[in-house]
Specification:
Main location: cytoplasm
Organism: Paracoccidioides brasiliensis
Strand content: 15-25%
Subcellular location: Cytoplasm
Number of strands: 11
Order of helices and strands: HHEHHEEEEHEHEHEEHEEH
CATH topology of the largest domain: Sulfate adenylyltransferase
Oligomer: single chain
Structural class: alpha+beta
Function: Involved in translation.
Number of helices: 9
Protein name: Translation machinery-associated protein 20
Shape: globular
Amino acid sequence: MASALAYMSESIRISRSDTGDLPSNRLFQSLFLSLFAMFKKDVSHGARSKVKSSVQRAIKQKLVETYPGLAPYMDEIIPKKASLEAVKLHIPDRVTLYTLDSRPILFQSLDTPPIPHLRVLHAFPDAIPIVGIDRGAIRFVLSGAALMAPGLISAGGRLPDPANNPGDRELEAGEVVAVKAEGKEEICMVGRLKMGTEEMKKKGKGVVMDEGHYLGDGLWKIESVG
């Protein structure tokens, strides 16, 4: 409960700085059910096109460079003789969805690397860095709210701890990470960090991720693109 209140309080603080006043009920609702999350609304798509083999090779190379942990599984994710399709999304705009046999496996906006779909991460859960949110943050994040620092730095959250775990490393702003919820094994969100983990620990507040793909969102609901 305390964590949920901290999460709400931090979001209200941000809305105050934007509006100069306490949020109205309507603004408060929009804050937690906002378009912060990239796929909060149902996703609509437009034209589909086959990805050229040279582009497909470049995508695979970019995936390995961005997520070294995916390298051992690359031929399972995108088999050598497979053919990707690129699907232009209308909502959200300027996002490309990559499908294999009509199933979404990656998405990419103009300023991000290709990001694995949650179903890919469920199959290969240790392939990209993972952070953890506490129980109090779960309902906000899965309603499409921005991921806030208080949900990660509390006792129930989880961030890298290189001082006590030599295998850990601090994560930088701009890195793509997976998010697990306290007490759950399944990854519930994936997205790009707006703030590095060292900064999160120092500040203890602020938006950590605001364009994630999360369980139950519009992208999750697309099982195939026919």
